Inverse folding.
């Protein structure tokens, strides 16, 4: 129970805030005009955070004006084998999976296959009566695509009863049926914000229904390929499922990083990626003129417009009045953040642990903001990969 509440706390905190680790002499994307002192300054900030919170491994990538200008791995992907983290290391990204799902939905909207107002369940819903035992309650048949994207569907929130962390042997289809049959909504759809992993699980099934292919295949074909990303995949559940270049995950406070059904979490929290992969994605949906976006300007505006129920969350992205967009992620053995900042910078930070220690989430959020305050760093104007 305590672990679940920590998971909730971590996610909500990162939405509303914009063994000692070892420094490795592994790949660094060198800035054209940055001196060694500047790079050492970045290292000091990262390793200080890792030492304070006992982070075994961390990966950082930063882009500016459409170019990746810095990427480096710190610490260990595998402590026992002293396998170091590199910019190519793959980490579970947890809830950073949600922006990918949101972009996929907006692509289908642009293709004319649905709208934000499309109903989800029931005779007039995109999924019809496929899941659960109809007739559904009135409120369930009111739920729209927009409400699932904005976490205002009326229930199934990331609390002690989060359906995504129940019935671990069920596949997604069976879990949706079980949830519709056994868990009533708590609020009228559209009225209340309640962060819902289950809602994004349902969105994944909508993508499959409309595209005719599996969710993972759709994202790889229509999003990742366009962004030049080759190594992202939905992760496995166990250590034996570890993929090439994937890190090992380390629990703190008794947490088991391999206790959850990660594959079933595909569309809300199942992807693995490198930090540079996340930047390649972010730079293709950032609304900046530096690289062509894979969504229209109108779609990007809708995707990042907050709901009436929560001014800091839009459709798969946390947002604020400063025009920053971001998302964090948290699982046992995983802490992540992906940011599109208003000033032309984007960044991704991936760690292979999380901790209950006070200040962890806030400090992680501030790492790159601290780096950007260093005016002595002269960032490259060219792609460094």
């Amino acid at each position: 129970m305590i672990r679940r509440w920590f998971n909730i706390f971590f996610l909500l905190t990162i939405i509303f805030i914009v063994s000692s680790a070892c420094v490795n002499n592994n790949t660094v994307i060198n800035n054209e005009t940055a001196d060694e002192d500047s790079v050492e300054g970045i290292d000091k900030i990262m390793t200080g955070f890792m030492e304070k919170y006992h982070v075994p491994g961390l990966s950082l990538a930063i882009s500016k004006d459409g170019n990746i200008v810095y990427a480096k791995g710190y610490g260990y992907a595998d402590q026992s084998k002293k396998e170091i983290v590199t910019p190519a290391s793959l980490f579970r990204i947890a809830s950073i999976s949600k922006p990918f799902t949101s972009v996929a939905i907006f692509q289908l909207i642009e293709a004319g296959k649905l709208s934000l107002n499309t109903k989800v369940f029931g005779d007039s819903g995109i999924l019809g009566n496929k899941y659960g035992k109809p007739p559904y309650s009135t409120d369930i048949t009111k739920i729209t695509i927009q409400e699932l994207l904005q976490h205002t569907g009326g229930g199934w929130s990331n609390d002690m009863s989060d359906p995504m962390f129940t019935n671990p042997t069920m596949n997604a289809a069976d879990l949706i049926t079980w949830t519709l049959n056994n868990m009533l909504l708590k609020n009228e759809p559209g009225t209340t914000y309640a962060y819902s992993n289950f809602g994004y699980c349902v969105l994944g099934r909508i993508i499959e229904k409309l595209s005719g292919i599996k969710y993972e295949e759709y994202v790889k074909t229509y999003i990742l390929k366009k962004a030049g990303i080759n190594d992202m995949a939905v992760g496995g559940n166990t250590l034996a499922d570890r993929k090439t270049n994937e890190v090992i995950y380390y629990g703190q406070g008794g947490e088991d990083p391999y206790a959850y059904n990660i594959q079933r979490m595909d569309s809300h929290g199942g992807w693995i990626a490198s930090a540079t992969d996340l930047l390649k994605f972010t730079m293709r949906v950032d609304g900046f003129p530096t690289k062509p976006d894979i969504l229209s300007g109108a779609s990007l505006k809708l995707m990042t417009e907050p709901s009436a129920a929560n001014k800091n969350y839009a459709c798969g992205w946390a947002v604020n009045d400063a025009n920053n967009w971001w998302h964090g992620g948290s699982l046992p053995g995983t802490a992540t953040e992906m940011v599109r900042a208003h000033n032309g910078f984007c960044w991704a930070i991936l760690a292979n642990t999380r901790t209950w220690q006070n200040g962890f989430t806030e400090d992680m959020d501030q790492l790159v903001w601290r780096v950007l305050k260093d005016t002595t760093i002269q960032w490259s104007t060219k792609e460094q990969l």
